[in-house]
Amino acid sequence: MSKIDSSEIGGDEELDVADACAAVPSGVDRTTESTRSVDLILAAIVSFAPPLAFCLAMWLWYAGVHAPTWIDLFVMLAINFFSLAGVELGFHRLFAHRSYKAHRSIKIALAALGSMGFQGPPIWWASIHRKHHRYSDQPGDPHSMYLYDKDGKFTWRGALHAHIGWVWTGRSVGQGGFARYARDLYLDRDIFWIHMHYFYFLLAGFLIPGIVASLLYGSWEGFAWGILWGGFIRIFFMNHLTFWCINSVTHGVGRRDYDTSDHSTNFAPLALLTLGQSWHNNHHAFPISAVMSHQPWQLDPGAWILHGLRRIGLVTDMNLPTPEAILKKRQAKNNA
């Protein structure tokens, strides 16, 4: 594990990707009417289909057509865990922040699993997140909830933008500019291949739970229930109710242990549901740390997984802030 002090991890040094990204592969990052149409179609699907599917499932239950069984819940929770691990440990901690090094098999697996989460292709996701850290809660932040209030005050309009409205906004989803934040990822053949075949992995996020449920039910009818619960309702819980709350809830509600330049907070109720990402003020204080928790009581399942993979040699060079760096930043907060 790599110990790094606050001078190495506290700022945006690791996010100065644009300085080293003078060129990207030919044919990427071009804004066209067709790509904008695809963005809007995907935004509409991910915004409305999951909550509508949840309402449908509740109606089917109420009408006596299909009550959720252990199979439905198992498929939903299992695919949710793996796709969430792909997003948080792969897209976020590995690709966006390079907070550790992973064996090629782990890197590929995380990129594939994260692509099933319906949060966008891996390179796009990482570049948007890098831009978020560069301009966090300032002009240029793709999904700041303070976009509509220059005084940094909470507004419901801003909260809606941070949670889901930003996926409808061209400048927020990186039209005409996101590729320059991620040239290093474009040059990784494995990640680039998965990025370019994103829709196949996205489709797999629906077909796999459908197939598993069909086998467990022993009928083709189970295929439909698997897609409903392991596909759409899983996305409803993962994106709408948990992970997207990082953009909204953890930039407005919770505790601030560090005096960062943004409004990030730590929000304990979401810790397990986001694999530790809701210790968001910790994360903004130490962006390239592979571990989000800074106290023994702060639960960080993502870090537990990484430590387990490190013990068997599949993860190396985990960046961790030193106790001295943590104490220094806490004292700075108390003295502010």
Labels describing this entry:
14 helices, mainly alpha, single chain, 4 strands, two-stranded parallel sheet, two-stranded antiparallel sheet, about 325 residues
Enumerate the spans where pLDDT stays under 50 for 5 or more consecutive residues: 5-27
Helix content: 40-55%
How are the strands ordered across the major sheet? 1-4
Shape: globular
The ordered H/E elements are EHHHEHHHHHHHHHHEEH
Largest sheet: 2 strands, parallel
Strand content: under 5%
Distance between the termini: 32 Å
For the record, the count of structural domains works out to 1
Mean pLDDT: 88
Structural class computed from helices and strand pairing: mainly alpha
Give the radius of gyration.
20 Å
Number of helices: 14
Task: Give the strand tally.
Answer: 4
How would you describe the overall organization of this protein?
The chain is mostly helical and 336 residues long. The chain is built from 14 helices and four strands. It has helices spanning 6-9, 33-62, 70-96, 104-115, 122-134, 156-163, 183-186, 189-196, 198-217, 221-243, 245-248, 280-285, 301-311, 323-335, and strands at residues 2-4, 101-102, 315-316, 319-321. The longest helix has 30 residues, at 33-62. The chain is globular.
Write the layout of secondary structure elements.
Layout: E1 2-4, H1 6-9, H2 33-62, H3 70-96, E2 101-102, H4 104-115, H5 122-134, H6 156-163, H7 183-186, H8 189-196, H9 198-217, H10 221-243, H11 245-248, H12 280-285, H13 301-311, E3 315-316, E4 319-321, H14 323-335
Parallel strand pairs: 1-4
Antiparallel strand pairs: 2-3
Helix pairs in contact: 2-10, 3-4, 3-5, 3-9, 3-10, 4-8, 9-10
